[in-house]
Structures are given as C-alpha cells and as structure tokens.
Records
---
Amino acid sequence: MTVDDRTAGEYWNDRYRESTRIWSGNPNVELVKEVSGLTPGTALDLGSGEGGDAIWLAKQGWRVTAVDVSAVALERAERHAVEAGVAGQIDWQQHELGKSFPEGTFDLVSAQFLHSTVELPREEILRTAAGAVAPGGILLIEGHLDWPDSLRHTDHPDVHFPTPDEVISDLSLDDGRWEILVSRAHDREQIVDGETLTRRDSTVKARRLPG
C-alpha cells in the first residue's frame, strides 16, 4: 500500500522524529507469551523499531540481530540497549526488507506487526524470514487484522490484513518440514503516542522440523 512518494526509510525516519518515543518500550505481549520457555539462542527481530522486543530477548539470554529501515529508530534503540545493559548482545542492522536481508539462520525469527503505509512486499519478506529459520527453530509472526477503533474512518480500500490461515498459505512452507504450533486471532490493547487503542490481531507460530 502506498500513501505518499517517500521511500520507506524517509517515511519511517519522519515518523520517528515526530516524538521522542512512539512505542511503549515494552516487548510485544504475544512475543513474551510465545517465546518464554524457549531455550535462548540466536534471534532475528524484523522491524525492531525502538528496540523493545530485541532488548527483552537479550535480557532473556538471546543473541539478537535487530533490523529496521529507519536509522532514527536504530539509533534510539541502540541507546536504549546501552541503558538496559544488553548492548553487547544485539547487532543492530539497517535493511529495507525486500531489498536486503540479514545473512545467516536463527533459532528464532520474529516479525511483529510488519506492516507499513508505504510499499512493503510483506509476503515476500515473510517467506525469506521462514528461510532464515534454523532446523528446530521458530518462526513467529504477529499481525493486525483491522484498524484500531480510533482509525476505522481512515480505512483504505486497498489495505488487506491477512488472516492467520492466509499468512500460513502465503508462506508456502515445505510440506513435512514445518509444524504449525499456533494459528489464532485475538484482541490486544496497543499504546501509540500515549493513547490506548484496541486492535484485533493474529498470531502464527511455526517450527521448522529438525533434520
């Protein structure tokens, strides 16, 4: 979906410059729910924003590669990681996903709300993300299913929020190589710019089978 002619980096840099903090700084609730209990290893955080998820993962013992298109967000996130005492466990990388992607495979690949109001090849990116999951590793995808209550009047007719089944179908996972652990829709409260919004979201969690 495209609403202006700025590049993704320009758009998100401008968005982050609007305030000193956009997000709450807390990790996403579903990430905590689905990752707690896993043995820490290597993690890839796609669309890391101001670093809330990456910092939480690092505090749990994960070695994190955190990716965002916005240099402003990455600078802010790196500063937060220093304050949290986990800077040495996080590799911050700037990528415009769809054009470049981190190298290697990971025990956990997390894509939390990888949506954008500028063009973003989300399905292609998520398929690449699945390919970056190491054998025995986890792919966790959290997405929106609709607009928050306060923004429903701004709906764009070209915007489609995929259901969990659609996300799984779009991933084109190899038969017999993956196990779907979670596929569900749920409500969630989201704090943006100090305002609490109610959203309908979806969670997909898949495990690449060993071997």
---
Amino acid sequence: MRLPESRLAVLVSLPRNEAALAQAAVRAGADGLKVHTNVRHRASGTTFGPLDAEREALRDILALGVPAGLVVGAAGSVSIAEMTAAREMGFDYFDVYAADAPSTYVEACGPVTPMVALGPGDGPSQAQALVRRGCGALELSTLEPDRYGTPLTLATLARLEAVASAVDVPVIVPSQHALVPDDLALLRAAGAAAVLLGAVVTGTDVAAFGARIAPYAAAL
C-alpha cells in the first residue's frame, strides 16, 4: 500500500465514482482515493454497482495517477471473479469489512494489497489474527452507524493505539467521527498511518468537495 513514510496520509473516499470528485480531491492535496463497487454506502447514500457498471468511471479515476483502493463489496456481494478482473486495472489496495470477506479474499487480491475493515467491536487480538492471515492493511471502523458524525473521542484514540501497537501494517482511520483538522495530529500520535475522509466530513457536492478536503491536507 503506497503511503507517505514520514507523515500521516490523507486519503479520500469518494461518495460517487466520478472523475470530477477525484480531481477535486487531488487538487486539494489528497494522497490517495478510495472507490466502491457492489455496495450501498451508508454515509453517502450511494448505491454502487458491479465492476462492469462502474468500470469506465473507475478507469477515469485511475488515470489521474494517484494511488486508489477499491471496496469490493459487502456481505454476500463480494465477487472473486470481479476481484480477479480488477487486479489488472491498477488498484493499490482492495478493501472490505473483515466480517464480509470471503475466506479466499487474501488469495484473490493477488498482487493488490488486501485491506480489511475491523468492526467497531474488534480489537488488537482480531487485528493480529487478520494480519497473520495475510491482510496487509487495516481500516479501523470506529462507530456504529447511529453514532456517525459525533466528535472524536478518547475511547477511539485508545482503541486506535491498542490496535496500531499490536500490528506491523498500516492502520487507516475513516472519518465516521466528524473529524476536524486538529484531530489529525492526535490520530498520528496514536498510531494511524492515514486518515480516510468520507462523506461525514467532505459532503457529496462537487463544488464544495475540494474546499472541504484542503484544510485536512494543510494540517499535516
């Protein structure tokens, strides 16, 4: 997984697979992007189709030349055949909730970094077991959906520190909390390798997208 070595990375989860959103994020200073297939995204309200339906838009986003990861689905919608096809497109990593990942997920990723998202109740022991099974990065899902948009808490920082200190792979924190730029230093100090800005903080409007991302990139 391609991340800056000396600082926290700012990644952006696109609320739609649109090149205009990707371009705005890159201009605002994003180090990488995340796109989706086969899932309904809670925070943005977007339903993403299968790889064939999203392929043209994904190619346009990948053509920007910044590292991009692909969410390959949710419970019951992850297609190993689609993952095999997507490996050839140039994605930096694949991502799925660990609880939704097929047993052959790591092998299906091939040369693409296999990332999995921990559930809100998963801690260091679960993280260690996933790394032992070949996962190359972890997304620390921090909140149940009914708490999305709440401020960063001490409990989340403590959980992040516990997980990050237990594994030797990057730990990425998504903005399920309503993170503010000043939170990035706290996340870095607790062991995060990257923050993943999503719809909770970026919104979904193309016109405002870059302006909402820029303060986080400037805070590094």
